[in-house]
Amino acid sequence: MNPRLIFRDISRSRFIAEYWHKRPLVLRQAIPPAAVALAPDELAGLACEPDIESRLVIHHGGTDWSLRHGPFEEQDFTRLPARDWTLLVQDVDKHLAEVAALLDAFDFVPDWRLDDIMISYAVDGGGVGPHTDNYDVFLIQALGRRRWRLSDGVFGEEDLLPNCPLRILKDFPVDQDLVLEPGDVLYLPPRVGHWGTAVGECMTWSVGMRGPSDLELLAAWIEHLAHRERPHLGDSIAPDSGDPARLTTDDIAHARELLQGCLPGDNPDFRRWLGAHLTEPKPGFEIEPIDPPCSPEMLRAWRREGQSLHRHPWARFALVQPDMESLALCCQGEALTVDPALEPAVTLICRLRHFTLDQLPAPPDTTRLDSLLAELLTRRWLVTDD
Ligand SMILES: [Mn+2]
After folding, report:
1. Model pTM?
2. 309 C-alpha to ligand 1 centroid (Å)
3. What is the pLDDT of residues 237-255, one digit of tens each?
4. Cα of 114 to ligand 1 centre, how many Å?
5. Residue 217's CB: how many other CB atoms inside 10 A?
6. What are the start and end residues of each CATH 2.60.120.650 domain in the chain?
7. How far is CA 174 from CA 23, 138, 305, 329, in A?
8. What are the two backbone dihedrals, phi and then psi, of residue 137, each rounded to the nearest 5 degrees?
9. Are β-strands 176-180 and 137-151 bridged in parallel, bridged antiparallel, or unpaired?
10. Homologous superfamily of 12-209 in CATH?
11. What 3 state SS string does 68-124 have?
12. How many Å lie between the centroid of ligand 1 and the Cα of residue 301?
């Protein structure tokens, strides 16, 4: 059933206040190992699939690292050295429903921030070297043990090993050195240097978050504005200046004003756009709608049968209130206007990855709820169990 992240020595609220986005923390025995049970062979099988992103990293000693991208063939795994290699498979949650179920354990993180679950398998000594990432991550020890070395250092591009196919830090001053056992979880905020090495055969699940950088967000917003009629930069003529090439302080001020005019205000258009943008799928994870569409009548029949629904594993939801009278359910880069009377049901749909129809609070008029559910099923943001 629904796995939960177990906070033992620290409360969830203290974790969020003191560690989230700020400092690393080890949560011992925070996930039951049974919730992160995937056989190494099954992971290797995924790495052979053409649509699944996978990498094989081999450390040949010193500064000599090699990186190969999948898809792999079965023989690739039989020719590997005895130690110092790791296989990493991205987006496993998008391909295996039982892996996606683990995302429920992180339901205190907004759904739109959940990027993927990457699963790695390593033999003794295997890892991707010391590095930093730009996002928060929970590293769950699933099988065997992994040694994690953490650094308080601040690293930049200049600290990376030159001519290396991986982003590996040249020097790594170690400030913490720990070993994770199955069920232990290491939380890392963005940009904290970390270096994981397998102690014997090991599997680690990495629950990664996402969020655009300031410039990515700005570029996307500008792209959204690009199709509209926009003001253009004119000039400030000083009739008797005799200096026709000169950019005046007025010209400069006008250009800055124009740029500032591009920044969004807090209005319904921006709110809808933001919700839609933050739920945009990564390339390759666009959900195709079903044809013919699902009808509200089908919902009535399914309600009688006790049908259960679940979120498409590629869907990330954001719920936004564009203004006092409206509500928008955002997913897959789109904002779907929802009847505000359905807010209790929609809130639950956003909270539960899996639910039966009778779990939803019935509005006074169930036909409206059935229309919404039919729409979500047609778009395949929600899917039936079969
Ligand atoms: Mn990392």
Report:
1. 0.93
2. 34
3. 777 778 888 888 999 999 9
4. 15
5. 15
6. 12-209
7. 15, 20, 58, 45
8. -150, 145
9. antiparallel
10. Cupin (2.60.120.650)
11. EECCCCHHHHHCCCCCCEEEEECCHHHHCHHHHHHHHHHCCCCHHHEEEEEEEEECC
12. 47
